[in-house]
Amino acid sequence: MAANSHTKPQKEEKHAPPEPPGPEAKYQAHVPAEIRNVSFPLGVRGYEKKAVETYVRKVNRVIAELEVTRSPQAAVRHAVERVEEQTRSILEEARASAEKITGTAQSEADEIIAQAKAKSADLVVASSTESDRIRAESDERIAQAKAQAERIVAEGKANADQHRREVEEELAKLRSEAEAKMKELEADTATLWDRRHELLGDIDRMADRLHEAAREAAGRLARVGSEDAWPEPEAEATAVLEEQPAPKKAKAKNTTD
Predict the structure, then answer these.
(1) What is the tens place of the pLDDT at every residue in 118-145?
(2) Are 109 and 58 in contact (CB under 8 A)?
(3) Are 66 and 72 spatial neighbours (Cβ–Cβ below 8 Å)?
């Protein structure tokens, strides 16, 4: 179908000034260029499944690497946003591929029909005495061409729909895995914060006991009034430290795939 030549001139778009980089910008340096700018090779009826699976494995590996950075929540959130962006891009390319397949099939069908009509017309002109037979033969050829054209179009649409479903299922699985990893990181972060509060409480209690030991030593010195009776502060501080409970080790959780 020819494009409409009487199109309205497009208005000049006004671009807003670039926004300052957000907190996720520093994590872009950890993401390889082949992950941010991915391009799948086209197969006969769409993207090759092996290329899509390879890309999914790369995304999973990048997410695992980002989990050990300074801010795991921001890293996973950034990865999820990148996955959603790739999702939109792949779906658009899948639709374009489907339209291309359908258009190619329709063009082949039109060409077959045109060739059949042209051949039937030539046969009618070449031999008027066999017009009935030629007409019947041409009708049969046209019917066969139409049936073949309909079959090609149907196969093209079926392949396009199947390819789109496979891409959507793969992307849904990837999004689900990313969300699960983000929930795990949130739970681990909460556990670390709880442990931090416990350690701060232990430090405060230890400081109070050290101050109390110092005050008791000063009191004893004042009562005795002799330098020989001065207690050994290092021994008392060591006793206070030995009475403190041993810190609990935070359980490390492996979140790599």
Answers:
(1) 877 776 666 666 767 777 888 888 988 8
(2) no
(3) yes
Residue 47 phi, psi dihedral angles, 5° rounding? -70, 150
* Nearest Cα to Cα of residue 156 among 112, 104, 91, 90: 104
Specify the amino acid at residue 171.
L
Write out the residue range of the structural domain in which residue 237 sits: 26-243
Q: What one-letter code names the amino acid at 146? A: K
In a domain, 92, yes or no: yes
Domain count, the chain: 1
Whether residue 195 lies inside any domain: the answer is yes
pLDDT of residue 7 exceeding 50: no
Rounded to two decimals, what is the model's pTM? 0.27
The answer to whether the CB of 62 falls within 8 A of the CB of 139 is no
Dihedrals phi, psi of 42, to nearest 5 degrees:
-85, 135
Predicted pLDDT at 105: 85
Q: Are 138 and 120 in contact (CB under 8 A)?
A: yes
Q: What does the pLDDT look like over 36-94, one tens digit per residue?
A: 566 666 666 666 777 777 887 788 777 666 655 555 666 667 677 778 778 878 878 87
In a domain, 42, yes or no: yes
Are the beta carbons of 46 and 159 closer than 8 angstroms?
A: yes
Is 251 a member of any domain?
Answer: no
